[in-house]
Amino acid sequence: xxxxxxxxxxxxxxxxxxxxxxxxxxxxxxxxxxxxxxxxxxxxxxxxxxxxxxxxxxxxxxxxxxxxxxxxxxxxxxxxxxxxxxxxxxxxxxxxxxxxxxxxxxxxxxxxxxxxxxxxxxxxxxxxxxxxxxxxxxxxxxxxxxxxxxxxxxxxxxxxxxxxxxxxxxxxxxxxxxxxxxxxxxxxxxxxxxxxxxxxxxxxxxxxxxxxxxxxxxxxxxxxxxxxxxxxxxxxxxxxxxxxxxxxxxxxxxxxxxxxxxxxxxxxxxxxxxxxxxxxxxxxxxxxxxxxxxxxxxxxxxxxxxxxxxxxxxxxxxxxxxxxxxxxxxxxxxxxxxxxxxxxxxxxxxxxxxxxxxxxxxxxxxxxxxxxxxxxxxxxxxxxxxxxxxxxxxxxxxxxxxxxxxxxxxxxxxxxxxxxxxxxxxxxxx
Length: 430
Prior knowledge:
The chain contains 20 helices and four strands. By secondary structure, the chain is mainly α. The protein has three domains: 3-48 and 233-353, no CATH class; 77-179 and 216-224, no CATH class; 369-426, Arc Repressor Mutant, subunit A.
């Protein structure tokens, strides 16, 4: 580890003492944060003539309209679906990793989340028996339907709620539990929903208050998560290369510290009843920016040779970053989510510079997902067409060559990502 990384071990970000709303700021995208700041500015500045404020409001309006245009464009439909599929699963797994789970429960959860589609629905082809077989293979342990169902419920309660559903009523039930309603309101809502789904009543016949709550429920909860955020993104960070090293800085192009100071001053002299919440938001925003910069510096320094084109991406996990900065892995997980870096020639997702281990822990070698894809592609390219390798054979070949263990389900996952057919389909009849 380089000297710069070792020095960062002394840094500490005491985020645990903050309220939940401040913690939530960590995981918000730049657009979401600027949207909240824009609401605050509208409340406290109104029509006052302030150049910094006016500039911010105009820039935010530009971002807002661009997102609307992109959302409405039919040309983006295919890309939107792809992004939802990637982001939704990653979003669920990021949250799932923070739960107190044993290894078997985590494996069950991984299999379930891998089977969640674009709209949040669980793949109907996934059977509990399939999950049992995978658990038996990896841990030589039998699990019951009740144990699998327990993990499934945990996933369904993640954000957005109601994903990993087997039928729409199941999703709606979970979503209703997350609405801020009394028990009697939920009962009325459930009765109206059943009648509506069974076509016993029309939507127009439903009382207005119940109708408003019904509209909060989604037939495709997965599509509620970040479908369009990636089409137009103002980068959170800017990275440039000087003669010797990469330099990371916050992108304060329009959300500058000067602007934040002016907003803070305005709030301090205000008699607004909401000024305490406003101050808390600004404090949380300051800590978000501080945390983001520190985490990004660690990532960029670790991956500097990769950015130079001199080496492949290094193994770098949330846990390793957390240890270096003396913060929790959950904080790292939140801060790298939906954040973008502007490099000299491209804009990339900060999280894309992380490289997780795909082989089992406590091995002498770290094999990342990119490493595994290369290995699988090479093994398949040299296999006998009359006797192609099964995923189990690929697993054994990797174990023999690299003296490390990778789960068969992991082999299957990355083989599919490479668009490599199954052994049966690859077999030649010649």
